[in-house]
Amino acid sequence: MSKYPDAAKVSWEKEKGNYEANWGGKSGEDNSVVFTPAAVFVEIVKAIPVSSLPASIAPYVAAHYKGQKIKEAGKVTDATGKTMYEAEIKGGDLIFDEKGNFIKKD
Question: Do 89 and 95 form a contact (C-beta atoms < 8 A)?
Answer without folding.
Answer: no
